[in-house]
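User: I'm curious what two different proteins look like when written out as structure tokens. Can you demonstrate?

Assistant: Sure. I'll show them one after the other, since each token string lines up with its own sequence. Here's the first protein:
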Amino acid sequence: MLYAMEEFPQLLEVVDRGFGNPANVEIALDYLRKSHGVERTKELAREHTDRAVKAIESLPYSDDKDVLTSRRALVDITERVITRTK
């Protein structure tokens, strides 16, 4: 929504009116669809995911099975968060 507002400042007026009126919801969704907000948000999420994975991988080495399993789970969670559809 914030990225969409950068592209379409008039969206702020719609948000300020609230979403109790279904017409405002449709107007806001229309602006969101027209904007690059979703793509920019996905790009930002990917950047943060990559940074998180690098941080996990930079932790001191351990051959402990539980540590290895936990690290793999952390990496899996970061990937799952940005690839989920719901």
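Here's a second, unrelated protein for contrast:
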Amino acid sequence: MTKGSLFDRQVPKPVSLQTTGLILGPTIFTIMLILGDYQASMSVSAWRAAAVAIWMAIWWATEAIPVAATALLPLILFDALGLATLKESAAPYANPIIYLFLGAFILALGVQRWGLHQRIALMILIRTGTDGRRLVGGFMLIAALLSMWMTNTSTTMMLLPIVLSVIAVIFQQDAVISKKDAQDFQVAMVLGLAYAATIGGMATLVGTPPNALLAAFLEDQYAIQISFFDWLFVGIPLSATLLLSAWLLLTRVVYHVNIAENEQTQ
């Protein structure tokens, strides 16, 4: 073997997490099916359903295949295992709550596609100026409004780069800000964004998945129907109160934001 051929040999690539999950999911599923006859803690159908759930959880956690494709496994496996017919398995996929989520996701994609979140942020900035407390409140208001119609995580991910950019500009233009004031303002801005996204998600039925899941649970188990406007009637006042309380606590109690308005920064 020549020296060149020795160095030309390729080093084996490590097995990726996705590949591991792709193999591990059906392997554990098969093992659980085999062991199903030797356990007495659960019924056969419950054990098989748990095996399917674990397979799906592994594929979801490792993203072995697209998340949406993993969600379709029950359509095949439940019928094959005798847990439910194909028609029964497919019925939950057409639940009205699913279409409510679909509408919210389409709305969120539209906001991202056309940069509506940036336009709203600019509009708020024009009105709040560069005063530290008003900036924190303005971005909290933006986050809460957007989070009413899309998931909290999506809202935070869209607005975080804008928040960090505003913080950087203020620090560059205003040289008289003390280290403590700068740290308090930065932490209040970032925490305010996260808290406001969570608070805004409480305002509407589509603001966060648990809201719609609760409505579906109450309707299925107790025949209690909660309409979109019924939720708004309670959610809007509650979110507004919590948002104002969070802003006051962040800017006046926990972190004393004392950055005054600066014409150069504006």
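A detail about the second structure: The CA atoms of residues 24 and 58 lie 7 Å apart.
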